[in-house]
Amino acid sequence: MSCTHEHTPTVVKAPIVIDRRWPEEGHTRIPAWVYTDPAVYQKEMDVFFAGKTWNYVGLECEVPEVGSYKRQWIGDRPVIMVRNEQGEINVIENRCAHKGAQICWQNTGTVKDFTCPYHQWNYDLDGNLQGIPFRRGALGKGGMPKDFDLKQFGIKRLRTVNRGGSIWATFSDEAPSFEEYCGEAVLAEIDHMLPGKKLKLLGYSRQLIPSNWKMYLENLKDPYHATLLHSFYITFGLWRADSKSECIPTGGGAHSVMVSHNEGKKKTEATSEMQRFRDDLQIHDLETVTPRAEFNRGRVGGAWIFPAAQFGIQANSLKTRHVIPRGPGAHELVFTYYGYEDDDEEMTRLRLKHANLLGPAGFVSMDDSEMLKQVQTGISGYPDSVSVVEMGGRDTEPADYMVSEVLIRAFYQYYRGAMGL
Length: 421
Ligand SMILES: [Fe+2]
Hints:
Layout: E1 29-31, H1 38-49, E2 55-59, E3 68-74, E4 77-83, E5 89-93, E6 108-110, E7 114-115, E8 122-123, E9 129-131, E10 159-163, E11 166-170, H2 178-182, H3 184-193, E12 199-209, H4 213-219, H5 223-226, H6 231-235, E13 245-250, E14 255-261, E15 299-305, E16 309-314, E17 317-325, E18 331-340, H7 345-354, H8 365-381, E19 386-388, H9 406-419
Antiparallel strand pairs: 1-19, 2-11, 3-4, 3-6, 4-5, 7-8, 8-9, 10-11, 12-18, 13-14, 14-15, 15-16, 16-17, 17-18
C-alpha cells in the first residue's frame, strides 16, 4: 500500500444539490433522470469514483517490467498504473503538477520516466518531480524562484492493493481496507478467479456504448434478460432460466454475485417461454460453446465489484469487464482477457475462442450494447418516465433462481442512500 504526497491540497467543495424526487414506490422504480441529468452524473463521479470506493485498475501481468505502464480511468479521472524501479505497482494521477495536462497519452507501453509534452516537466515512476527545463532560466534571465521545491510538486499517488494479481486503487484515505470493502462473498469470487497463480494477458476488446454507465451495471445484475434476449445463450445452453443459479446482493446492494450452472442444450418447460430458443438451429462448430472442464466445474458468471468492474468466467474465457463513464449518455466498456501461466496451449486456444462470445461483436455481448442504446434513446425522449423492477418480488433478499431483478432493486436501495436521493 502506498501513501499520497503530503502536499496534496484539500479543496473543500460545496455539495451538489439535486432537485429531484424519487418515485414513492422506492427501489422498485427507477426514474429516467438518473440516466440523463448532468448534476446526477457529477455527483456520482464525486461520491463513488472519487469517493470511498476501491476501483479496478488492471492486472499485474499487464505491466510485467520496470517502467511498463497502462493508462486507465477511474470514473472521469485519468490515471496510470506503472511498475516502479523496485518492481512495485503504483497508480498515479495522469495529470501534470504544472498545468494539469495528461502526461501519458498511450494505452500501454514502457518508459524510463514520464515527461509532460507541454513544458517537459519530468517525473520518476513514483510520480516524484525530477526536473523542470529552464529551471535556472535562459541567458541568465527567468527561471523558477530559488526556493521552488520540486518535492512539493509530485503527482498524486493513490492507495493501491494487489489481490491475486489484480490491482485496485482508491482516491480516499478514509476508504476501508479492500477486504472490508468487498466483503466475504465478493472476495471469494475474486479469489476463485485469481487463486494466486501467475496470470497471462491474452488481449483486450473495447467499445463505446451510447448509454449511461449504470445501464451496463444493471445489465450485469440482470439474469432475467439473459434468459430472453440472448439466443446464443439459450439455444446452446450456456445460460438459461431453468439452470441452477444464485443472485446475491452484497455490500448493502452495491456489489453482487450472480452465477449459473451450465447444463447444455435441452428442451424443457421453460424453453417454451423463451422465444429465442431455436430448436431448429444447430451449431456447426460445437467447440464455440463447449467449455473444457476446469476449476469452476461448470459454474459461470461472477461478481460485480462496485462501482465499475466484473470478474467472471464464460465457457473457458476468463475476463475482467471494466466500465468507464463518458458523460451521462455514454460509457466505454473494456474486456481484458487473460489466462493462467500454467495453461496448456489447448486451453489458451479455447480461452481465446470463447472470447468470441464477448466484446463488441460477441455472439452474446453484442445483443447487450444494442439494447442499452435502445434504452437510452427511449428514456431520453421521456425524461419524466419511470422504469419498474418487480420481477421476483419487491424485496432485496438473495434469490436462488434466475428470473429475478433483485440485484437491481438492491442496487438502487444502496444508490439512493449514497446519493441522498
Ligand atoms: Fe446480456
